[in-house]
Amino acid sequence: MRFDEKLILAKLESTYAEDSTPAGVNAVLGKDVEITPIEAEALERGIIKPYLGADEKLVFGEHVLLSFKVEAQGSGSLGVAPGCGSLLRAAGFAEIIVDATSVEYSLAPSTLESATFYYYQGTTLHAMNGARAAVKFSMEKGIPYLEFNVIGLYVDPATVAVPTPDFSVWQKPTLTGKGRTSNFALMGYAAEPYKLMLDVGQTVKYSQTLVSEKIELNDRDAKGSVTIENPLLAQHDYFADVKNSTKGALTITHGNVGGLILKVDCPNVQLSAPKYSDQEKTTGLDLELTLIPTTAGNDEIKFTFT
User: Fold this and answer.
1) pTM, whole model, 2 decimals?
2) Which of 160, 150, 158 is nearest to 33 (CA)?
3) Is pLDDT of 1 > 80?
4) Predicted confidence (pLDDT) per residue in 70-81, tens digit
5) Mean pLDDT in residue range 188-195
6) Confidence class of residue 110 from pLDDT cuts 50, 70 and 90?
7) How far apart are CA 172 and CA 177, in angstroms?
8) Domain ranges of the chain
9) How far apart are CA 217 and CA 199, in angstroms?
10) Rounded to the nearest 5°, which phi and psi values hold at 85?
11) Nearest CA to 22 among 120, 91, 122?
């Protein structure tokens, strides 16, 4: 079995924790993949014995951890969900499709979805039912990424025939840069960003009662960080924003071809912990971000593919 022979499939479930049977068309074009095939608790029996030695441990609460990155890129067709669409839905986002126009992912207020993941290491299949995920978005010089940390219910591994993956919905990524990344604004000022990281901050965990088990997504604490070229105070005073606990919007658009454009909106950001950084001998300003819901709720971050 070669270590690099890996494949991930993911398909949303109609009924929670019932295997949705992902196929080749549900292939995930991922990278930096890591799996913990069994994450569990180990309970020592603690029984007495007339000799020295370790106690037997009983394993229970088995579940699976899977992490990977995907390129943050549209499907190439207006109003057609991107390859990462089902992954975002398993991370607590609701999908809104406007035919031939856009696909929007906003934080779901309720009725959270789940997915079945199939992970193949060679011909060994590790299935994960009832899976949910936490997600981060990052942009630096190069390719923007979405990073998913998935937790799913354990299924015994099996030796299987590996399906042929269909990656056709996954388009070649658009690189950052002039003419391709645009419309960045932070607190109403068109700053020049070097890098941006947004962590949606979902709390995803395995939960077990005496008679059931499930993966819960039951909290969220969205945050992030940004590095911009330090503006003159006369242009914008971010230190005053920090001091005065000012809140404002962050937005950025990436891509310049219809079907391959991603717009990220955070309407209510608070800044903290400013510090200078060396950006190849240019002064950068690093800022921590807290993404706060507006009074409408469930709107800390939105992804729109157009």
Assistant:
1) 0.95
2) 150
3) no
4) 999 999 999 999
5) 98
6) confident
7) 16
8) 6-305
9) 15
10) -60, -50
11) 120
d(CA 40, CA 51): 28
How many CB atoms are located within 10 Å of the residue 226 CB?
Answer: 24
pLDDT of 269 reads 98
Whole-Å CA distances, 105 to 36, 48, 72, 151, 267:
28, 56, 13, 21, 14
Q: Which of 135, 124, 114, 164 is nearest to 35 (CA)?
A: 124
Give residue 2's pLDDT.
80
The pair of three-digit structure tokens given for residue 141, joined into one six-digit string: 């010089």
Q: What pLDDT band is residue 3 in, cutting at 50, 70 and 90?
A: confident
Dihedral, CA of residue 191, residue 70, residue 143 and residue 5, to nearest 10: 160
Name the pLDDT band for 111 (thresholds 50, 70, 90). Answer: confident
Encode the chain in three state secondary structure.
CCCCCEEEEEEECCCCCCCCCCCHHHECCEEEEEEEEEEEEEEECCCCCCCCCCCCEEEEEEEEEEEEEEECCCCCCCCCCCCCHHHHHHCCEEEEEECCCEEEEEECCCCCCCEEEEEEECCEEEEEEEEEEEEEEEECCCCCEEEEEEEEEECCCEECCCCCCCCCCCCCCCCCCCCCEEEEEECCECCCEEEEEEECCEEEEEEECCCCEEEEEEEECCEEEEEEECCCCCCCCHHHHHHCCCEEEEEEEECCCCCCCEEEEEEEEEEEEEEEEEECCEEEEEEEEEECCCCCCCCCCEEEEC
Q: Take residue 230 and report the two structure tokens written for it.
A: 């330090």
Q: Are the C-beta atoms of residues 73 and 148 closer than 8 Å to each other? A: no
